[in-house]
Amino acid sequence: MRDLLLDLIDGAAGRFPYVDARHVRRQTEELTVRNGEPAALGSHEDEGIGIRIRSGGAWAFAAARGSDRGAGEEALARAIALAEGGARAPHTPLTEEPGSRGEYSSHAQIDPFGVSLDEKLALLIPAEAALREQRGVTVGRAGTMARSEEKQFVSSEGASCRQLLTECGGGIAAIAVGRDGAQIRSYPGSHSGSVAQAGWEHVLGLELAANAPRVAAEAVALLGAPACPAGPTTLVLAGEQLGMQLHESVGHAVELDRVLGGEASYAGTSWVRAGGLGSLRYGSEQMNVTADATLVGGLGSFRWDDEGVPAQSVPIVRNGLLSGFLSSRESAAEIGLARSGGCMRAEGFARQPIVRMTNIGLDPGDAGTLEELIGATDRGVYIDTNRSWSIDSRRLHFQFTGEAAWEIVDGRLGRMLRDPVYSGVTPELWAGLDAVCSAPAWRLVSVTDCGKGEPGQLAHVSHGAAPARFRNVQLGLS
């Protein structure tokens, strides 16, 4: 495959300043058990070749399904035709990047595609059954997913990179229905559970069946729980809820193509200014955010991005000030950065790479454990699992809901509260950050449905954080 891709770019390299080619082979599987029966089994494989050509300041891209020379030559011919006949754009440079070479495989102790369907059902069926043992649970659901993606990348600048990335995860959810509506509790999270760059051992480690009784009991308890009150309060966020806050109000806002207006037609721009590095106040001095594509297990981890740029750890916010962007070679050059942040990724072979999040994490602080943070909080509300989110096109005004909340009274967790909603403005929320738990409490959570681009692309990303406390947050609609 490497030789074929090199032959393809040789056919265009003399006519254009830059050419790259990617071959991607992807295998996915999803399995769901619902109310005692297998409800869904999806398995899909595809592969193909994508060719990208730089012509002046514009990109031409074409792809073809398959892995033989005919498919590659078809993609190349269409890419050349687009490059020669497309609209002209002012010449803009790319940041310098040595041609990376090598091979890499993410760690997977147990190949999830080597685990039989019977073995997977033997884990899911008891976990889902344990949910429905709780009186009042109407629907129980348990599921797993796996993905394997093999990529070969070459460029006219000498890059030749091959990597194999394996993902696996799962989760459970219990739905209880009462006179006033339905309530749901999920574990480990509501976004496909917990998915990591790992093998089947990750699912085994989640202990789904052992956690099912607690999850089911909480779903039923929510039916009779008091509504979360409205008004300003102290908010402690953890787990998936904090991960989604990072995702929507930080991760998307610092994608440099969005900042520069290149993503305006899909999900908006950004309130962040390109000239704000080192001066724009994003949050309090307790706010330190890092984009790290080198984290073991992160869904936003890799050895090289889809431009052949090595994975990096990029400071995004330091002591509350904007310190970096998620960038490509093109967008980094546009604002005078010396190097791309290595954030270009594409969904499969048939999409052009665009700037995507890596693993966006809130760095640990010194507030100790979650129990110690709660103990140091007189009054407030604690939320750890996301239910829904909404944020405007500039990633500025937002509204988030959680599956459940717990009141904090005199340094202790009190009653469970249903239907928690909080809203605010991004820099105001982060300005209220006054404590982050210490490194032992830091965890990765996963998001498997991050949408961006036109045509649309989905990406898998992870977010790391330890529980954090925010002052003066508006509960209810603002």
Topology:
Blueprint (H helix, E strand, L loop, with lengths): L1 H12 L4 E17 L2 E19 L2 E8 L3 H17 L15 E5 L11 H16 L4 E19 L4 E19 L2 E7 L6 E3 L3 H7 L1 H17 L6 E7 L1 H13 L4 H4 L29 E4 L20 E6 L2 E2 L6 H6 L9 E2 L8 E2 L4 E3 L7 H6 L3 E5 L2 E6 L5 E6 L1 E6 L2 E7 L2 E5 H6 L1 E4 L6 E10 L4 E9 L2 E8 L3
Parallel strand pairs: 4-6, 9-16, 15-24
Antiparallel strand pairs: 1-2, 1-5, 2-3, 5-6, 6-7, 6-8, 9-25, 10-11, 10-15, 11-12, 13-14, 16-19, 17-18, 18-21, 19-20, 21-25, 22-25, 23-24
What does this structure look like?
There is one protein chain. The chain is of the alpha+beta class. The chain folds into 2 domains: 2-224, PmbA/TldD superfamily (PmbA/TldD fold, 2-Layer Sandwich); 231-475, no CATH class. Helices cover 22% and strands 40% of the residues. The protein has helices at 2-13, 69-85, 117-132, 200-206, 208-224, 239-251, 256-259, 329-334, 370-375, 426-431, and strands at 18-34, 37-55, 58-65, 101-105, 137-155, 160-178, 181-187, 194-196, 231-237, 289-292, 313-318, 321-322, 344-345, 354-355, 360-362, 379-383, 386-391, 397-402, 404-409, 412-418, 421-425, 433-436, 443-452, 457-465, 468-475. Strands 9, 16, 17, 18, 19, 20, 21, 22 and 25 form a 9-stranded mixed sheet that branches. Strands 1, 2, 3, 4, 5, 6, 7 and 8 form an 8-stranded mixed sheet that branches. A 6-stranded mixed sheet has the order 12-11-10-15-24-23, covered by helices on one side. A hairpin with a 2-residue loop joins strand 6 (160-178) and strand 7 (181-187). It is globular, with a radius of gyration of 23 Å. The mean pLDDT is 96.
